[in-house]
């Protein structure tokens, strides 16, 4: 990672990251060796992770109150996975999941209310 603080303590609006070389599997060319994350992107990712955590906390509370029947497998602590992968996907890409999927539903475009309603069906 490159430094995000400039001279005099000023803050840059982006951070750059480089990956280490690794072996490829079924790829002709490797992905880019470096990437940049802007301040706006980082704030978006943080907000998404916070929303997912709150959504999971609310779902867990509803489950404990026995308002949810059946199972309630939560995604707490794993928010960065779906947020980070979603950040790397193209708009036309899709994801299939059937387990611990509240975070995925949200980052793929489902509203918070719509995602929360799935625990009642």
TrEMBL record:
A GO molecular-function descriptor: pyruvate dehydrogenase (acetyl-transferring) activity
Keywords on record: Oxidoreductase, Pyruvate, Thiamine pyrophosphate, Transit peptide
Cofactor(s) of this protein: thiamine diphosphate
Keyword Transit peptide: yes
Region (Disordered): 1-35
InterPro entries on file: DH_E1, PDH_E1_Alpha_Subunit, THDP-binding
BP term (GO), one: pyruvate decarboxylation to acetyl-CoA
Residues annotated as domain Dehydrogenase E1 component: 47-114
Pfam families, per database record: E1_dh
The protein's name in its UniProt record: Pyruvate dehydrogenase E1 component subunit alpha type II, mitochondrial
